[in-house]
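TL;DR need structure tokens for one chain.
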Amino acid sequence: MTPQGDRYARRHGRDRRARVIRPRPGLRRIEGDPPSTAVIGGGIAGVAAAVALAERGVRVTLYEREPRLGGRLAGWPVTLADGGTATMSRGFHAFFRQYYNLRGLLRRTDPGLEGLTALPDYPLHHSSGLRDSFRHVPRTPPWSALAFAALSPTFSVGDLLSLNGPAALPLLDVRTHSVHEQLDHVSAHDFLAAIRFPPAARSLAFEVFSRSFFADPRQLSAAEMALMFHIYFLGSAEGLLFDVPRAPYPEALWDPLAAYLTRLRAEVRTSAPVHGVRPDPSGGFRVAADGLARRYDTVVLALDTGGLRAVVEASPRLGDAAWRARIARLRTAPPFLVSRLWLDRPVDPGRPGFLGTGGYPSLDNISVVSHWEGEAARWAARTGGSVVELHAYALSPHAARGVEEERLVKQLHQVFPETGAARIVSACHEWRADCPLFAVGGYAHRPTVRTPDPAVVVAGDLVRTGLPVALMERAATSGFLAANALLEKWSVRGQTLWTVPDHGRSALLRALARRFGRAPGAPAAQT
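>> reply
TL;DR here they are.
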């Protein structure tokens, strides 16, 4: 980082090792007749791209097939059994402090991020009774990871001595330009087995993160899990700190950003699914939606896996054969279930706002929403009850919904016994299967931001960025990268980006990893 970048990071409260990625030099705004862009998809990636383009004078139309913005972070109104109204969503999301680009997007409408509030811990609970916490773990890498292992009850001295050191060393120097080449051929499950992690520690310390991708660790690429380990443990001093919105997602995030886009003269079209994109004989593209085909100079495809496949399949002249084949090869993660329950009595006051769980048949985490979200807290105060949310990731595609919903509630009673006597006043269940699957060996087939046509770009958390970002931060980052790629065409300076460092922070650990590290299935290093 340059001295100027170091001062900027300190002024904005970022880790001093945060990496700044500056766009190419250029004009501040479009000069002359502004070009037009269709941004297809109104989730995090699409909104980030639309914001960056509209701020620089591009005529933007944002298409979203659902009635509301937000994509997988959307929220919508529901009517409760008691006649009241509430907001339902697809579940809990942690806004980690090193999500620099996502937080930069939110600062457009909330400069001080006052709409977010911190949760003090990220506790993990195993069905065996073991429990881990990050509250007393130092923030500075590598001490964060070492202290977690030393303080965790899931690690015994014997466990630490039996670890396969050479197999574990690649985790100590994750390099974003080579981690997929090194580990993409191995599943997260097999990688952890090769390290000889104790089962409980494996479930809590790693599988909690791997299941954040809504995938079984047996299906997930070890490279993605290692990248997550770097982002949260060894790459950033902010990796264990996170915030949550004080209000439901529409109120906290999307309504303000939609209004901001409108002030920038962008057109926001919801309930407007795009049926195809075709090159126009006069140049640019025709985007078909609502029975009309409107012309645009450029296109941003900011869709989920299924949506991207569908639009590309319906647009036979988009891209080339090799690119289209890569898109067709993309896979979706297994289904997941989110159950939000309005209970007639409170949970114990000492329950954390969020609890990760391991070792249960399907329960992956519990959120006590009424501990931190204003709408839920007001309902709880009015009724004397509580609002909790349960997640089950990577369920079988053949699972019986009613059975799984009841099963999830029974697991809640195991973890929070006081809820066993509670009456469920209302319940909402969301079943979805639209998250990208980062399968073993699949990295080479994932799209990049750029496509064979320089006027068409792709954004979303399924995109290969070459940067140490994941989940919501990958979506926001890819949206800004997509906008920057188009702005370069018009000689306009794009969005400055930030990430955690793109390699391990400790010179000693990097040297050990280079000298002795060996990924599972790789030949032994020559000495």
